[in-house]
Design brief:
The protein has 153 residues and is α/β, with parallel strands linked by helices. It contains four helices and eight strands; from the N terminus they run H-H-E-H-E-E-E-E-H-E-E-E.
Length: 153
């Protein structure tokens, strides 16, 4: 009898045996969000929204110190104002976003006078990886490196 009641409660809650089995089989963590500390939230928000064309999403704090962006099925980028200064970052540590056309993205960068480099550091150049993916690197207002590529998504 208790098993029958428990089964009924689980079904009412929308939890089926398939749901429980899928949750049990998930072996890897799933990326939820990446948070970066920024010096000027307004400037950084404008960069990610207007240059990278990433959509903002509601954030729960409503304190003027957070901007959240939707960057995947369930993944987000959180900008948090609070950096005491803008610091130098290594290009090897970067975010990466794929775009339909690197060439079209370069046009946008040039229109906004935003410099870019290839992996070797050559200015206003892109490179093509050994797997055929075209890529370039830019920096956001806080100096964080961002790879832009045309990998299929």
């Amino acid at each position: 009898m208790n098993k029958l009641i428990l089964t009924g409660l689980l079904l009412c809650a929308g939890i089926t045996g398939a749901t429980l089995q899928a949750q049990a089989q998930q072996k890897q963590p799933v990326l939820n969000h990446i948070a970066i500390s920024v010096y000027n939230l307004e400037k950084s928000t404008a960069f990610y929204r207007d240059v990278l064309l990433i959509d903002t999403m509601p954030e729960p704090f409503h304190d003027g110190k957070h901007t959240w962006f939707k960057i995947g099925g369930h993944s987000q980028l959180h900008l948090i104002e609070g950096a005491k200064e803008i610091t130098e970052h290594d290009r090897g540590s970067h975010l990466c976003f794929s775009v339909p056309s690197v060439d079209d993205f370069i046009v946008r960068l040039n229109q906004r006078k935003i410099p870019f480099i290839n992996w070797k550091g050559e200015k206003q150049q892109f490179n093509v990886r050994v797997d055929g993916v075209k890529q370039l690197y830019i920096q956001d207002p806080d100096g964080y490196w961002i790879e832009i590529n045309d990998d299929k998504y």
